[in-house]
Write a structure and sequence with these properties.
5-stranded antiparallel β-sheet; alpha+beta; 3 helices; elongated
Amino acid sequence: MDELGFHISQVAKILGLAQPMGFMLSYEFGDIWIDVYMEKTPEGWTGRTYTISVPKEKFGRLTELVESMGGLAEDVFLDFERAYVSLSQEDWESASPVIMNLL
């Protein structure tokens, strides 16, 4: 993770920004959006959180995914356009093989 910290610092420097306390990468796979967020702690860049977002029409499929991992339907949030769930790194690793079934 030291290499990761170096590169995040370089990006901040290039953009003329202060050193960040958090860093997020966003990916788009069709109508599935995935955000990966990391926090900077005294131990380095840790605390990865993965947020999956799908169109609200796929709310049921996202809920099924969460329940298949032992989560609750209440873990899935819905707004006017999309459904969201945030996963720990451990949950992400168990779910990632089936996430593309949401397509």
